[in-house]
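I am writing to request your help with a piece of structural work I have in hand. Thank you for your consideration; the sequence and its tokens are set out here:
=====
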Amino acid sequence: MPALSEVITVLEQAYPPALAESWDAVGLVCGDPAEPVTRVLFCVDPGTETLDEAVELGAQLIVAHHPLLLRGVHGVPADTAKGALVHRMIRAGIALYCAHTNADSADPGVSDALAEAIGLRVTGPLDPKPDGVTGIGRIGELPEPEPFGVFVQRVADALPATVPGVLGAGDVDRLIRTVAVSGGAGDSYLERAAEAGVDAYVTADLRHHPAGEHLARPGTAPALVGLTHWASEWPWCGQASAVVAGAFAGNVDTCVSTRCTDPWNVRAERTSN
């Protein structure tokens, strides 16, 4: 059975840490590189729900997209939320490895997984790095043009259900063929999507003012499809799982978390006029 260090080597070949943004915190958070690994759980968020799942599955490693300790810390006391997770993982013999913006920019990476789920043929990155291959977001094409209303339903059907659901902003009859996608918070790339001349842009955490200003710009701005953060990045878990499963066929079991870690768990519709 492989050691944790061997699994990390495979992950870092697929998602090179050098691709991470300078402010990011990627890599091994806790765990002994010499310890053996037979089961790995892949998730978006390293939280109580996914740690519970890892314990139930008997996993020795959690591979998460989001960092647990993104900001600088001076300690991890067990009476804090994140400290409690670290202590519990250590006691349970579970390591934590995080691949964040390096997984966003990798080829293939987070946005490739989102594009594949939607049914797009990727043609290149939305915001390329100098190599022209890696970078944040992806641009792709649908097999055939379809009305925006149909496309929004396509996105909803392709991704796991969430309480807020999927929102669209644009003419429901507009034909959509070219699409930009960016897993995670993507309204900082609205300008890039407009410059790319795509018909629609799919991303998460779209804010009111940037979205409104984007749609009001002169010319034909891309229609917008808004997702929850977790839903937009969840397809990557399957991609990363396949990377490890392929490298250690028969020696490492890989599992994709099915627990929604969106913070939104209640939805209400107005019932009175």
Remarks:
- Residues 251 and 257 are 20 Å apart (CA to CA).
- The first helix runs from residue 4 to 14.
- The first strand starts at residue 27 and ends at 30.
